[in-house]
Amino acid sequence: RYQAVIFDLDGVITDTARYHYLAWQRLADTQGVHFDEAFNEHLKGIDRMGSLELILAASPRRYTDAEKLALATEKNEHYKELIATMTPADLLPGATAALDAARAAGLKIGLASVSRNAFTVLDRLGITHRFDYVVDAGTIARGKPDPEIFLKAARELGVVPGDCFGVEDAVAGVASIKAAGMFAVGVGDPRVLAAADVVIPDLTAFRIPCTAITNKTTIT
Ligand code: BG6
Ligand code: MG
């Protein structure tokens, strides 16, 4: 029986994935790099500098570390403008109900986002108090798909990874959950999130996974 659920934030609980997309789009435009939804899909769940590296790899120009830092800061300033007006109305459908269901089932609730803006976003959404533990992205050495962030959340919640399930919208995020030895609930397109144990279109379909599903998945 599961004892904890660990949520991703961007693209799962709120549509900040859209804001990240818009901010990277503008940055890519200024650098003359072609950027679209398909490219953006690879950036989901990837930390800020990692995302920037992927975008700049598509440019013929070489960038110094100082230039990269300036571009990352520029993107983040734009992103901060976009999230500044967020309110609890920006919770995605089913998000509050999912958090309620997890609480009602007696699960510990964690948040594993590599975003350094996660605390701000939770605050704006008014849901900080609903989490037993929120990983501070600044303390993570290796971003998703490395399992570090989900393992840290489990450890801080006092639950072994096998008793946790993770909820993710990104390919890199699902890989991180699986590498941590947890059950993965994908949120989005099942063709994109094929590595997840179960995929739901959005949190309105969120159910606490039962042991039967886990056993079945372990066998196959
Ligand atoms: C992840 C997003 O949650 O956070 C990525 O999926 C983003 O798109 C990453 O790049 C880092 O966010 P931030 O706020 O630290 O730049
Ligand atoms: Mg995400």
Give a short synopsis of this structure:
This protein has helices spanning 16-30, 37-43, 48-56, 65-83, 95-104, 118-125, 148-157, 171-179, 211-219, and strands at residues 4-7, 108-111, 133-134, 164-168, 183-187, 198-200.
Describe it.
This protein has 220 residues and is an alpha/beta fold. Helix content is 44%, strand content 10%. It has nine helices and six strands; from the N terminus they run E-H-H-H-H-H-E-H-E-H-E-H-E-E-H. The protein has helices spanning 16-30, 37-43, 48-56, 65-83, 95-104, 118-125, 148-157, 171-179, 211-219; strands at 4-7, 108-111, 133-134, 164-168, 183-187, 198-200. The protein has a six-stranded parallel sheet, with helices on both faces. Strand 2, helix 6 (118-125) and strand 3 form a beta-alpha-beta unit. Helix 1 (16-30) crosses helix 4 (65-83) and helix 3 (48-56) crosses helix 4 (65-83). The longest helix has 19 residues, at 65-83. The chain is globular and about 50 Å long. 41% of the residues are buried. Residues 211-220 have low confidence and may be disordered. Bound molecules: 6-O-phosphono-beta-D-glucopyranose and magnesium ion (MG). The site of magnesium ion has 10 residues, from loops. The active site is at residues 8, 10. Belongs to the HAD-like hydrolase superfamily. CbbY/CbbZ/Gph/YieH family. Mg(2+) binds at residues 8, 10, 168-169. It is an enzyme of class 5 (isomerase). InterPro entries: B-phosphoglucomutase_hydrolase, Beta-PGM, Beta-PGM-like, HAD-like_sf, HAD-SF_hydro_IA, HAD_sf, PGP-like_dom2.
